[in-house]
Structures are given as C-alpha cells and as structure tokens.
Amino acid sequence: MTGIVEEFLGLKEGSDADILAMQVGDFYEFFADDARLVADELDLKMSEKSSHGSSYPMAGVPLSELTPYLKSLVERGYTVAVAEQRGEDDTTREITRTATPGTLLEATGADARYLVAVVRDGETYGLAAVDVTTGTFRLTEVDEERTALAELGRFSPEEVLPGPTLRGDDDFCDAVRDDTDATLSVHGTEAFAPGKATHRVREQFGEGALDAVGVEPEGPGTRAAGAALDYVAETGVGVLSSLTRVQPYRADDHVALDPTTRRNLELTETMRGERAGSLAATLDHTVTSMGARRLEAWLVRPLQRRAELERRHDCVDALASDALEHDAIRETLDGAADLERLAARATSGSADPAALKRIVDTLERLPVLRERVTSSPSLADSPLGDVLARVDAEAAADLREMVDDALADDPGSETGIFARGYDGELDELAAEHDDLVAWFDTLAERVKAESDLSRVTVDRNKTDGYYLQVGHSQTDRVPEAYREVKTLKNSKRYRSAELDEKERALFRLEEERAARERELFDELRAEVASHASLLQDAGRALAELDALASFAEHASANRWTRPELRDDRALDVAAGRHPVVEQTVEFVPNDARFGEGRRFLVVTGPNMSGKSTYMRQTALIVLLAQAGSFVPAESAEIGLVDGVYTRVGALDELAQGRSTFMVEMQELSNILHSATEDSLVVLDEVGRGTASDDGISIAWAATEYLHNEVRAKTLFATHYHELTDLAERLEGVQNVHVTADERDGDVTFLRTVADGPADRSYGIHVADLAGVPDPVVSRSRDVLAKLRADEAVDVRGGSGGSEQVVFDLGSGELRTDEEEHGEDAADEGGDESQETLDPETEAVLDELRHTDVNNSSPLDLLQRVNEWQNRLD
Questions:
Q1: Helix (H, G, I), strand (E, B) or coil at 300
Q2: Do residues 221 and 89 share a domain?
Q3: Range of the domain at 856
Q4: Does residue 323 belong to any structural domain of this protein?
Q5: Do residues 753 and 620 both lie within one domain?
Q6: How does 592-627 read in b/e, with b if 16+ C-beta sit within 10 Å?
C-alpha cells in the first residue's frame, strides 16, 4: 500500500463524509472507491496508483478547479470532506472542512442556500435558518406542526437538521422531504441540549442576544439555533464570524403560504418545475444576484405589516415616476458584486484578491447612489434614502479606500497583488526580483553581442530551469562559459555558472516575495473580514434597492397600479389581470369584488373559459400587494390577509399511496383547519374526484363550513350547479360566471366574469376544441339532447344492434326501456313489488337520515361517509 493511499484511507475512515478530496501537490486526488464514484458522477478520467504489488483507482482535479466539481457532487446529495496540505514540507494533511448541501460555501447565482435546524418541545417548534453564503441567521418559534412545515417550505432548505424528538417522527420527516426536497442530516444530540445550545448562541451573538431578540434561553428556538451553529462549526466552513446577528421573526408577520399554495400559484417555478413562466421570473428585472435573491424572498414571504408595505410602495412609486433617475440607478447597480457572499468568503479565508477588488468596485457605487437619490426631488422625498442610510457611509468609505490603496490595479492571484508603496519590504523584494527578471530578459541579446551567434533564445521550464538554446549549426560559437545540459533534435540547451547563480537568487526572491504577499494578503483579508457586518449591511441595502427598482421597472412597462391597503377585510379589484398570463396573450381584465354580503363567490362557467386564471390572478394580486409590489389592475383596494390557501387540481401520488381524491381531501382539510376570517381561499372543483352524489355533498358541506365558521374571503369554482342555489340561502354567497356566446352551434368563450350563475358548462364544445374525433363529438351532442329531454337513448352495439336505455339525471342510474316501464307497472301494483333492503343497508340509511350536516365538521363527515361506503360494500 502506498503512503499516500494509506493516508487517504485513514483520513476517510475518520470522517463521516461520503467522499474525500485530498490535496496532493497541485491536485486534489480521490482514491479507491471514492475515485470510482467521482469518475462515474463527474465523468473524470480514472487511472491507477501502484506500489508494492497493489493498485488503487485514482482520479483528480487541479487545485484551482475543485469548486465546480465540489458543487456538483454536493448538489447530487453527497457530503465531501476536503483535506489540505499542512506543514513546511507539505507532507502532513488534515481535513479542513466538510461540504454538505446546507454548508456549501461555493454557491453561485441568486438562490439562497439554507440549512434549517428544527426542534420540537411539546407543541412548540423552534426553527433556526442559516445561509452560510450570505451570513443570514433567522430564528422563530411556532405552535403547530403545519406552521413549522410551512415555514420550512418558505426557506426551501438544502439541508434540515431535525432535533432528537423529530428524528423518529416519520410523518414529519416525510413531509419535510415531500415539501422541500431537502437532505435530512443527523447531528449530535448533545448539540441540541438546552445548556450547550444556549452557551453556543451567547458565544456567537453576545450575552444579551437572546434577551434582545425575545427568545427564551434553553427554549426550542435557542436549541435549534445552537445546533445549527454547532453544525456549521463542525463542518469547518469557517464562516461563523460572518454570522454577526440573529434576525428573529414571527411567523404571523408574514402571509401564510403552504407548499400547495406556493406550487399552485407558481411563485418560483411552474407546475413543470421550470423557473421560466413563474411569478418570480416574470417580475425579475434585477441586475444583481443579491437583488434577485431579495425579490424572490419578498414573493414567498409576503408581509402583514402595513407600515413596511406602504414604505415599499412609496419607493416603487418614486422610482416609477422618475424614469431617468430610475434608469441611472439601475445602471449604477448593474455589475455590483454580491457583498453578502463576499463577506462570507472573506471570513472563511476563501476570498482571493479579485474578490477584494470587486468589494472595492461595489463600495464605490454607494456614494453615487446616494447622490442619485438626494438630487432627484421625487426620490429625495421617498424612503429610498433610508435604505442607503442603513450603511455607515464613513466606515464604508474608509474600508474601500484602505483596500483600494493596498491592491494593484489588476492584482494577480499569487504575486503582483499589491500596489507599489503599500509595503516597504515587499517593494524591495519586488525591485530585486524585477532586476533579475530584466537580466534574464536581456541575456539573449548580450550573448549575441558577445559572440558570433545570430539566433539564441532564453527560456525556462520546470525541469531545466533557465537555459540558453542554440541551433545545431551554431553550437561551435557558444561562449566557453556555457556548458551543454541537453541535446534536442534541432538544438542544444546550455547553462553557465553565472546563470546558475542568478537563477538561485531569482527563485529565492520569488519564494520570499510570494511568502510576503501571502502574509500581507492574509492580513488584508482578515481586516476585510472584520468588517463583515458592514459589508452585509451594504449588500442588503443594495439588494433592496435593486428589488424595488425591479418592481418599478415592471410596473412602468406593464401599466401596473399602486394598491390601496386597508385595515378592514375589503377586496375590490377593478379590471384585474394575471401577472404572468398577460405577458403572453391579449388579456381580458375582470373585476373581483368582495364586501358585505359578498365574501364567498361561487364561480361557474365553461371549462377552458378562464375560471382558474381568474381565481389565481385574484390571489396573486393580493400576494403582490403584500410583497410590496404594484399590481396588474386599474385599481385595487386590499384589506391585508393573513394567509392565502389554494386547492387547484391534484395529481395522483401513488408512490405515497395517495390517490387524486385523497390528495384533494387532505388539501381541503388543511384549508378548513388553517384559514381564518382574514384569509383568502381559492378552491377549484372540490369533490370532483369521487362519485357525483358524494362530491356534491362534500362541496356543499365545505361551502357551508367556510361561510358559517371560517368566514374567509373565498373563490369556489365548480361544475356542481346545485351549489349556485346557496346564494339564495346564505347571506355571504354570491354567484359569478365566466361568460360564453353561442350562435348557430358555435361557442365563443368571452372570458368576462359577470354576476349570476352559468347556465351550463359547454363540456362537449371543449371536447371538440381538444380534438376529440368528430363522430364522438356528434354522438355526445345527440345523447345530451335526449338526456335533457328525458328521452330514451339508443345504446349502439359493436354488431350494429341497439338497445334503448333511460338515464335518470336525479339518481344517476341507467336502465333499459323495458326496466323503466316494468318499474312503473310495479309502482302501480303496490308496495309488494318493491325490493326489500338488507338490515345493514337500512342501518346505514337510518344513520344518514339522522346526521346533522350543519353541525358536523367536514373531516368528520368524510370519515363517516368512508365508513358507510365500507359497510355497504
């Protein structure tokens, strides 16, 4: 076994990582099973390392190219330990970090990467969410499991650390996987211990941190925070110093959006899992990655705080009203570096000279932006100045000047980092180095002048060092001071004692200069890291300005209007539009009006006419207003909602043992349990996944419960026209329908919403539009006409024969014409001819007759219906 492979296997055995990348010289190497795995996953070329009769698979990547491979492996779900060379002889190696999905520092782009620790203590859940790439640390406590899962879903974590009481809870862990696709990792139980966790939090954020943020010591929130900090420290990311503040928040500060609603409204990705076509992609005109991250966070975490929303609307209003300054601000922001992530890289020791130069470039934009805001009358009167005022302008200027004075205009990665005059010792080494380089640069010309050589070159490689190269035809003219060191096909290489001496001096100077530059750069990077909090403040301010400018850009380009926020439960949208659909088609605007006597709208109309779009656009308009954006409407008065809940279609989840109807009922159950009178509920076709009589009963009962008990603003699309009768029986229910125009058998969907119920659904017309064969469409029209006229329908057999049947629209039963007449005769003959029911069926019917639907919960009714069906079967 080779020494290197033995060392590799020993380090791997001592880690919990799936893969180990070990530095060997200028490469990170993988051996044995790790080499096979990495070669397969990343399409790397695999070789062998042999020694003492044994061979081991080997694969490697250059030091400078580890990041993309590391990122790719972690995103595939692997944990990767990284071992670096240590010691003067570079023969000692130790694991310096372990990259996991939630602690991958090398994240790129706009997406946040959260690690979330969750602790359950009784009925209370503590959540601590950390993004190591930006230094964000958020903390909250909630009282219900569904709220905890909803909060987890908002963060879309890459990795979740469940506390000890949650690890064996399969339902909770399965829900986390289903809703977030996160990796669930087990961390040491002791890290969640109340005492250790509290000490860890106070050590990180200060003795008074917990009191300042209103979180109880040793409580579930503190325990989650302590475990998250411990995990980050254990993985060796080295960014704990970038976690400068804990940001507490209350779940009820934000609009409740469960995973189903986020998916149905396509906030960050479409139903097909694509970002293009989502609300976030449509509104994203940001010019920085931190701005894009902030905009998406606003969309998935809409606020209930009116004052903050009014402030955002004021900023958007000001930017939209001054097009020239708005464009100038966006131009200034364009190309700004992600200061939040650069702060984290500086504290972790991974920021290179180019990264520090980008910090300088970005900090230079702050005074320019302040001048833009203060010089414009419309902007100066807005809260935009307050956004930039959160950054200590003097401290930012001092940091920028210090780093700018230190770095060269185009700093190298290892040498040439610093400007002349920054360090006297380095300047002396650089001057000596430059003199020696000049000696070698002019050596060829001096040799030519001192001899009869007409062609001579001086070059350098790793094997031979510096050498003089002369063609074979002129080797007899080489000065005697030079000795031959290598013969090539067409030339020979020579060195001299003077060249040897100069080379040794140059190599010594290169090492000394590189060591001095490394020392100085480490000091400079540490100084920048000490200003991590300042850089984070600046990054957050620029991110907010970029997101607000993006809102203003979209509002101006698409004729969006500022919503009027209200403290009551009003919702009055005039000529509203769907923010995404209007980008691709000529859109027909519609009103959405709620108020006294109008808080539950039963929406009817043809398939494909726009019912679902109408309901979703109403929900999105409310959500946009509470994200701080303008809205696609002529006007909008919006009473702030505490949650948006949707049930829009369902897919079979057979792998989890859940059918379409089961998913539908679970989503309905969540809404009926979670919504309040301050919520907005969107329901589409509840009850369609089961038999008609069951479906109507469930839809009816759910309508009554939402109207009588929950009292939320509700949009309920249905094909059960029986529900339209509720408008005459329940004071808050009103009918609206999407209109259609039928002339000479042709139907045109007008996509206009009007009061009152629809007369029918035009399902056959939709079948025709979908390309169903003409014979089927024609036969459908014939059957429908006879059914509506209560006439017998011929059942056409494959052999050409036919039988007349009658369909009872009330009972849903299909009978032959002979059976129909036979039953009529039996009815005339008296009760003796009627079928006698068995005792079990009679018992079920008796229970059904005595069930108080109005005073039973929907879930109870569902359970009882299921029980009755089983007994009847």
A1: helix
A2: no
A3: 839-872
A4: no
A5: yes
A6: bbbbeebbbbbbbbbbbbbbbbbbbbbbbbbbbbbb
